[in-house]
Amino acid sequence: MEKQMLRAVLKRLREKNLLLECNKEVDKEYEMGAVLKHFNNKRPILFNKIKNSQISSIGGLYGDREIIYNLLNINHENRIEKFMDAIVNPEPYKILNNGPIKENIIKRNIDLQKLLPINKFQEKDSSNFITAGVMVVKDPTTGKHFTSIRRLQVNGGNKLSALIASPKLTKDFLKLEKQGKPLEVAIVFGYDAEFLMASQISSATYGIDKYEIDSRLRGEPLELVKCETIDLLVPANAEIVLEGKIIPGKRETEGPFGELMGYYGHIAPHPIIEIDAVTHRNNPIYQTAFPCREEHVSNGLIREIELYYHLKNQLDIVDVYVTEGGGYRFNAIISIKKQKEGDAKTAILASLGLNKDLKQVVIVDEDVDIFDPQDIEWAITTRSQASLDYVIVQGALGSSLEPSHDLRGITDKVGIDATKPLNDEKEKFSRAIIPGYDKIDISKYFPNI
Ligand SMILES: Cc1cc2nc3c(=O)[nH]c(=O)nc-3n(C[C@H](O)[C@H](O)[C@H](O)COP(=O)(O)O)c2cc1C
Hints:
By secondary structure, the chain is α+β, with helices and mostly antiparallel strands.
């Protein structure tokens, strides 16, 4: 029985009745995306019949926090501890001689559009885009594996354009490009939650091998096989792998593309990947993700750990939520057990300084539910005064994925201290409580409800 990658995930989802299967024929252009968006990209959907394709496709697989917890056998309370454990205690992976991913090997006449049901999602998208492929590269100096999701524009035949918003990956590629050398890449489809979560950890911060983090997270070695045409390892039980190279000295225009915040990203020249081999299992399943905020929950989960540990050095921190509305990047809510009056301002400084994408942070007391927008609004409106509690930083670095940043090439940042004062002698900030409220059994009063 397979334990790793997509087939194991599908089995688990079916057992738990979490998988929707669509047997009606769908068009990979717009229609599949519309169906995924209908469920807010939080329902895993297996599309069994895609127009002009022999291959089925899974979407919406990792857009829901609870499904990710479930697949990883973790829960909300222990998530931070589990992910941090994987980062600091990497374990070896295992190299196998063969695996199902080698059941079919294609090295000639590669036409990606014909081979795979690659989606076109939104009206003004420049082409069809691969949106869920995990790109594998090796650090040219250390040889450590670096995995990440990068959207890829299909340019025709075996060519793709890559959007690489990663300083580390860009630096690695530019260094090789100066020497006239390509960067070898493999793009993996049909992975499990462990593989995804490891891919979202920032390599630049930890300088780690993501395959070793994956092995710790799954509690057994990640099983890998060698690629056919390049010196990289890929999961033995993945569904589809594209093997190729980022070519030095070549750029092609990429975009527009409907980005995660629902705006179109602009057109710009980006590096080209040429695919030299495609390997796939029998009856492979292509993996896709609607480009949207919900699909970035895995990224947000990792940012939550980074914030938690960064702040833990200085504060008694309770929990962190990098919010869905803010694309799991731009907005964080942090609850603390305040010990000193300066705690909240320190939390603001530390979090805004940690990650360039973070644009807004709200600090609340531990009695506020950071996953409840009403409770956060309540804390901001009743526990903060703008002139005293708002910290505004003008002109810092930001993410190009939100358009207000593009106006000036830089972004303003704001931190809101929505904590109550420590010295609340008159108990102005204590919540009114009904004694016995928690114990009320409403069915005793209204038996028919
Ligand atoms: C569904 C999904 C799509 C993503 N698409 C992109 C992308 O197109 N370009 C990009 O640079 N990062 C994208 N990311 C984020 C990176 O995969 C993530 O930041 C990376 O793994 C961490 O490495 P880094 O620190 O080098 O960014 C995506 C993440 C997810 C979950």
